[in-house]
Structures are given as structure tokens and as C-alpha cells.
Amino acid sequence: MLNNIGLPGLLLIAVVVLVLFGRGKISSLMGEVGKGITAFKKGVSDGSKDDDNDPALADGAAARDVTPETTDKDKA
């Protein structure tokens, strides 16, 4: 159903959204979306820097398995 939306359909949807919400509301919403994307990118880059500085993983050391062993009591 949505595969048949062309350029005229998208323009009509854009005009309806603009009329309903107004230019000011849409521009403020897009500003908030931009801030969210920027914060996400910053968080991802900070996370990768933290992984690089982790002494447990330094010098190519592999992460150790900390999964608890199951006992017969745990299975019941």
C-alpha cells in the first residue's frame, strides 16, 4: 500500500503536516532531533574511548567468562 506513494503524495503529506503543526513547531522539533543525534554520536564515541582505556582489555587480553556454573540445585 505504501509502495505507491510518489513525489506528489509526499508533497501533499508535507503540506498537511505544515498546516497542522505550523512552521515554528516543526523547526523546533527538528532542532531537538538534531540535538538528540549529536548526543547519541557523542555517547557512542565516548563509549569506544572507555573501551580503549579499559585496563582489563589492554594488551589484547581477552575478556574472561564470568557466567556462574549451574549445579543440580539450579536445574530443579
Automatic annotation (TrEMBL):
Subunit structure: The Tat system comprises two distinct complexes: a TatABC complex, containing multiple copies of TatA, TatB and TatC subunits, and a separate TatA complex, containing only TatA subunits. Substrates initially bind to the TatABC complex, which probably triggers association of the separate TatA complex to form the active translocon.
Transmembrane segments: 6-22
Organism of derivation: Jannaschia pagri
Origin: domain of life: Bacteria
Described function: Part of the twin-arginine translocation (Tat) system that transports large folded proteins containing a characteristic twin-arginine motif in their signal peptide across membranes. TatA could form the protein-conducting channel of the Tat system.
Membrane topology term: Single-pass membrane protein
Main localization, broad class: membrane
Keyword tags: Cell membrane, Membrane, Protein transport, Translocation, Transmembrane, Transmembrane helix, Transport
Lineage of source species: Bacteria, Pseudomonadati, Pseudomonadota, Alphaproteobacteria, Rhodobacterales
Family classification: Belongs to the TatA/E family.
Any matching Pfam family: TatA_B_E
InterPro entries linked to this entry: TatA/B/E (IPR003369), TatA/E (IPR006312)
Name of the protein in question: Sec-independent protein translocase protein TatA
